[in-house]
Specification:
The protein has helices spanning about 20-25, 30-35, 85-100, 110-125, 175-180, 205-220; strands spanning about 10-15, 40-45, 45-50, 65, 105-110, 135-140, 160-165, 190-195. With about 220 residues, the protein is of the alpha/beta class. Strand 7, helix 5 (about 175-180) and strand 8 (about 190-195) form a beta-alpha-beta unit. It is globular, with a radius of gyration of 16 Å.
Length: about 220
């Protein structure tokens, strides 16, 4: 096995009002703790968020995976019949994986993690032909956009190996929204932490990440 295949190659999807570069910077400590297991590749979402929404990075670096209103706005807690830009984001990710892959797994945060969970369900029900390997979802939640409701059927429980990290003090994604997603995966690793809307990197959490990736790396090396 060559040096390039001794690690896992993981695609990373940022949250709403973030960017690939911003997410890379925010995950520096996280990536450092896992550097012997994986290399991380970051991808920008294709849609620019309106500057007046605020709360994110610099205006030219505020991106999103889809919108729940026609005026290019999104809030995770709002119910909506709109998922503007969603299909374009699916194709955007598929094209990136075709061109830059294969990837051993995908890691995602917040709206990106919700988006990734939907990709897993789409794969399960045959709407998506894409190898996701394994997934690591941080501050994930079930979408409240009605066009996505069909993917949360009990018939579409994903068998993709998954780790879900849920913040008990998250004020952006309520705890119950994170818990709702657990049943969408078959026997996922579920990690609760007392913090908020971020990727925790305390020793107890790092151990869980390392154990999860160590198992995925063992599978890769056995193939």
């Amino acid at each position: 096995m060559s040096a390039s295949t001794e690690k896992l190659k993981i695609l990373c999807l940022h949250g709403y009002r973030q960017s690939a570069q911003g997410f890379r910077e925010k995950t520096g400590s996280f990536r450092k703790s896992l550097k012997k297991f994986a290399d991380f590749v970051f991808l920008d979402a294709p849609h620019k968020v309106c500057a007046e929404q605020g709360g994110g990075e610099d205006n030219d670096q505020c991106l999103g995976w889809w919108f729940s209103r026609e005026d290019n706005y999104y809030r995770a807690v709002e119910y909506s019949d709109i998922h503007k830009g969603f299909s374009q984001s699916v194709e955007h990710v598929c094209q990136f994986i075709r061109e830059q892959g294969p990837f051993d797994g995908v890691l995602a945060f917040s709206q990106g993690a919700c988006f990734l969970s939907l990709l897993c369900a789409m794969k399960k029900c045959g709407d998506l032909d894409l190898d996701l390997g394994f997934v690591m979802l941080f501050a994930a939640f079930r979408s409240r956009c009605s066009p996505h409701a069909k993917y949360y059927s009990p018939d579409h429980v994903s068998s993709v190996p998954a780790l879900l990290c849920i913040g008990e003090g998250d004020e952006v994604i309520p705890l119950e929204m994170g818990n709702e997603l657990i049943e969408c995966f078959n026997d996922p690793v579920v990690l609760y932490h007392p913090g908020g809307h971020f990727l925790p990197t305390q020793p107890e959490q790092r151990t869980v990440y390392q154990n999860f990736l160590e198992k995925r790396l063992a599978v890769k090396k056995s193939q």
